[in-house]
Specification:
It comes from Pseudomonas lactis. The chain is an alpha/beta fold. The chain has 14 helices and 5 strands. The chain has helices spanning about 10-25, 35-40, 55-70, 85-90, 105-110, 115-125, 125-135, 140-160, 180-190, 200-205, 220-235, 240-250, 255-260, 260-275, and strands at about 5, 30, 50-55, 75-80, 100.
Length: about 280
């Protein structure tokens, strides 16, 4: 049975784990960032794992620090899975027993695997999709190009002030031709405190390291941008949002594609190192 625990502070998570261990000391726990992560893994793993929604990356990390340093849990099997976000850039070191996605988040894994094709098949207008891509740019490449801009603003923020950007979303700057008002986005980022001026922010963005584009693509931004494209250019007219698209992406990611990801391999390795059978229903040959 897969158990889902929501709305927990680190202390609450510890209390819940203790209660579960008292009934079944062999329970294997996965701490996850949020409910969408629970949904992502739920259909891919065997029964018997306890999936805990910690309601946030840094709550998960705080909880794992407590678990790692509390002798009551020295024999417990507790693992955390988090999005890498910009840890690769800031060189942030995760606690023991926490594994991160690559290159950035779970949504990126789905989008890179071209699960977007299933979204387009379901919600796109085939003639409009064909017409757009006839110009030489695939829809996924257009999404990445637009998402990188927002991702680099977030990257500068993570390297410097780390202000809250929860309300900084591409849809705010959307235009009907599937372009985005970059000047307005830069100005808004400055208003939120990312940098003192647009010139400073632009300079910092230009100084960011040259890496694979996907390291700068925040999955939720990319999905937001895909929604914009469906709304304005190649959709079939239905009104859809991220809550509609994300389940399609999750269901469209094949087991074979997922098994090639870093998170699949490292989670398997964590279990194997503890003498625990693979947690996945799908196993590579």
């Amino acid at each position: 049975m897969i158990k889902m625990i929501t709305e927990r502070e680190p202390g609450d998570i510890i209390a819940e784990v203790l209660m579960t261990l008292s009934a079944d000391p062999e329970t294997v726990f996965w701490l996850l960032e949020g409910v969408t992560d629970v949904k992502f893994f739920k259909s891919r793993i065997k029964n018997g794992l306890s999936l805990i929604d910690t309601t946030g990356k840094y709550k998960l990390i705080r909880a794992m620090d407590l678990f790692n340093n509390d002798p009551r849990f020295s024999a417990a099997n507790i693992m955390g899975i988090v999005d890498n976000d910009y840890d690769w850039l800031t060189e942030y070191q995760l606690p023991d027993n926490v594994i991160s996605t690559e290159p950035r988040d779970l949504e990126g894994i789905m989008l890179r695997a071209n699960s977007i094709a299933c979204v387009l098949a379901e919600y796109g207008r085939p003639s409009s999709v064909e017409s757009f891509e006839a110009n030489g740019t695939r829809i996924i490449d257009a999404i990445v190009e637009k998402a990188i801009f927002f991702g680099k603003i977030r990257a500068v923020n993570n390297l410097n002030r780390k202000v809250c950007l929860k309300k900084f979303k591409p849809q705010i700057f959307f235009r009907d031709d599937w372009s985005y008002d970059r000047d307005q986005a830069l100005a808004r980022a400055v208003q939120l405190g990312v940098c003192d001026s647009v010139d400073w922010l632009t300079t910092e963005m230009q100084k960011l390291p040259n890496v694979d584009d996907w390291y700068y693509v925040r999955g939720h931004d990319a999905i937001d941008i895909l929604c914009g494209g469906l709304k304005s250019i190649f959709g079939d007219g239905r009104t859809i949002g991220a809550n509609t698209i994300e389940p399609v992406l999750r269901q469209s990611l094949s087991d074979a594609e997922f098994s090639r990801s870093k998170i699949y391999t490292e989670v398997n390795s964590w279990h194997a190192a503890r003498g625990i059978p693979t947690p996945y229903t799908f196993q590579t040959q």
